[in-house]
């Protein structure tokens, strides 16, 4: 069991001031939909976390915070620090900050990082702290870390690089290894890639990448999972076979077991196969899934099916979307609405007093009861001649 309980963001991409998100649920969800929650002690947290808002409101910024953390924590090279993600509309002397609280197995972790900057560029780590079960494990600024190997500790703390202390000490502590794997999975399963650009379509290297994974004997269960899920939603693929030079052949339910080249399959099906692989590896690494524009290539009715699949496998997902019609399949605790004027404002629907938790959320949103909708007024439509 692994999931995130809260996230704090400051001076990061489109977010100027500090925002804090809590992923706990309301009493109605806890009492009526416990299968949609993680339980830790007396607290319940949502498995599904969706972010709605107009274009440019800051939905993806929240997801990028999780991706940046995953890249910072798994950064193996001192000179491979991520590109700048500081808000260029804020005062340049304000540092970017990220903090996250999460549960791994039965332990609670809190990690925060403050980035060193020059003007509007982040160039390294200024401060980071990690707490495990409310006990401080390390403090970068004070050069404190709770490990027994004093010689190793002194060598690293006296020669701090751009790498996170989690990366520096991961080989010497089992707790840090669990954290590393958790964030390593986020980095490799999200569709927000290394340049923090969302990959929404089919890529030229997809076939060879999928083939290289499926040809491994360890992943026979992965192929079975993909085929079974596709069949359960009416896609008649019965086998994926790896050929020479990392090419794939698809077999369908046909009298003669019809064979097709993978690249001739529809983009929507390929995107779905890639998503199912990401879900499989998220489960395998006991991590969470971060997806930007989840419904961009999926049929509207498929999104609830994917969310059901995730809930049944106890996988927490954070995703952005414009598909308001899927609100009818979500509880108020599973919805965040985002709006940006000068700064980003976020409302967790469980905290609003406008609607009741059992009412149709979609009808309220369609009538702008919550705000957080595109402002379309006096549309400019004239195309000028040069």
Descriptive overview:
The strands form 4 sheets. Strands 2-1-6-7-8-9-10 form a 7-stranded antiparallel β-sheet, with helices on one face. It has a 5-stranded mixed β-sheet with strand order 14-15-5-16-17. A 3-stranded antiparallel β-sheet has the order 11-12-13. It has 386 residues and is of the alpha+beta class. It has 2 domains: 2-200 and 292-366, Rossmann fold (3-Layer(aba) Sandwich); 206-271, no CATH class. The relative contact order is 0.16. It starts with a strand and ends in a 20-residue tail after the last helix. α5 (174-189) packs antiparallel against α8 and α7 packs across α8. The longest helix has 18 residues, at 267-284. The protein is built from 10 helices and 17 strands. It is 28% helix and 26% strand. The model has no long low-confidence stretch (mean pLDDT 88). The radius of gyration is 22 Å and the shape is globular.
Question: What's the short story on this structure?
Answer:
With 386 residues, the chain is α+β, with helices and mostly antiparallel strands. It contains ten helices and 17 strands. The radius of gyration is 22 Å and the shape is globular.
């Amino acid at each position: 069991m692994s999931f995130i309980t809260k996230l704090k963001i400051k001076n990061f991409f489109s977010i100027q001031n500090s925002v804090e998100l809590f992923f706990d649920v309301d009493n109605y969800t806890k009492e009526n939909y416990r299968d949609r929650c993680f339980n830790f002690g007396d607290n319940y947290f949502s498995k599904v976390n969706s972010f709605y808002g107009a274009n440019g409101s800051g939905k993806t910024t929240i997801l990028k915070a999780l991706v940046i953390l995953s890249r910072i924590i798994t950064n193996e090279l001192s000179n491979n620090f991520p590109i700048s993600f500081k808000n260029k509309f804020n005062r340049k002397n304000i540092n970017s900050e990220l903090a996250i609280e999460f549960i791994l197995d039965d332990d609670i972790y809190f990690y925060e990082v403050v980035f060193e900057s020059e003007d509007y560029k982040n160039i390294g780590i200024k401060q980071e702290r990690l707490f495990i079960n409310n006990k401080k494990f390390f403090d970068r600024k004070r050069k404190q870390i709770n490990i027994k190997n004093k010689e190793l500790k002194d060598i690293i703390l006296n020669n701090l690089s751009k790498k996170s202390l989690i990366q520096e000490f991961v080989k010497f502590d089992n707790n840090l290894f669990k954290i590393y794997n958790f964030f390593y999975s986020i980095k490799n399963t999200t569709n927000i890639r290394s340049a923090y650009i969302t990959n929404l379509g089919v890529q030229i290297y997809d076939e060879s990448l999928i083939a290289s994974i499926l040809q491994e004997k360890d992943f026979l269960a992965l192929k079975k999972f993909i085929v079974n899920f596709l069949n359960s939603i009416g896609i008649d693929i019965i086998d994926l076979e790896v050929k020479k030079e990392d090419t794939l052949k698809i077999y369908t339910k046909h009298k003669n077991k019809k064979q097709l080249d993978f690249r001739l399959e529809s983009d929507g099906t390929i995107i779905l196969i890639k998503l199912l692989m990401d879900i499989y590896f998220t489960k395998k690494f006991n991590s969470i899934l971060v997806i930007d524009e989840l419904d961009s290539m999926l049929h509207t009715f498929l999104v609830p099916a994917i969310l059901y699949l995730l809930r049944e496998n106890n996988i927490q997902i954070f995703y952005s979307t414009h598909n308001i019609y899927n609100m009818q399949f979500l509880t108020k605790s599973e919805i965040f609405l985002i709006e940006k004027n000068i700064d980003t404002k976020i409302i967790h629907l469980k905290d609003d007093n406008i609607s009741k938790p059992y009412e149709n959320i979609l009808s309220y949103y369609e009538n702008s009861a919550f705000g957080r909708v595109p402002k379309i007024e006096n549309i400019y439509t004239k195309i000028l001649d040069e």
